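name: query_chain
kind: protein
chains: 1
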Amino acid sequence: MNTLPPLPDPLPRPAPDPRARDLVLDFADMDALVADLVLPTDASMYVMSALETSRELVRHSYYRYEFATVAVTHSLFALEHLLAGRLGVDEPLPVLIERARDAGLVPAGLAAELDRGRELRDRLARGTVTSAALRPAMAVARVRAVFEAVALLLRPPTAAEAAAADVGRAQPGDRLARLWEEHLSAPYPDSFRGVDIEGVELILLDADVAGLVQRELNGGLDGDGIAALWTCITDLDRIVPLIDSAYCAFYFARLRTMAALAATRHAPAAT
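structure:
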């Protein structure tokens, strides 16, 4: 009697990296690992995309261990973008973190954790470590620090913070010209195109103030220009406290500072 040969064992599925599995039993358990990495709802699409990608890289590090380290480096894109906009400067990430700490935007302990993530990114770029440098739990801690910093940075800046950001950056006589240069390099907040607050069309207010400031720097305003500038200042005083986006609030607060500096040049001298 002929018998059929035994069927071969099915091919085994590739096992996930055991270093990633020492924290969870299966892929579904990775959800708990990243559960507190909640995306901010009031951030720009760029920041939200970078943070979401970082979170998903951690989740999928169950299958590819190196994704955990990549998640940390990717989250720093969001941090650097937001810090530059909030501080109004274009500086390397370590300088941005230091400035944010000194301005009180992030506490010192959190700034130190952010800098550890930045240092890891730099070591990867120099080739002194590989993408297998972090276990998932360590990567989550570094990514969580970025999420926490983003939440703090998305608060509208207080008057004290805006003043602190200007300390030591220029002499009073140069301040209007310096702020004007910063304004020229700062992108208008995309999500506020076509938006009005309290009947004030933001993008038109931006254009009006910019035109008046440029006229002041290029030769000086006449009486009508000065009157128009004070009208803009009144509008800015009304709408800036109502803006719920950190970058947009900073953008228009800087605009208000420029308008005030230009207007005070024409204030009558005290007698």
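note: Residues 67-87 form the longest helix (21 residues).
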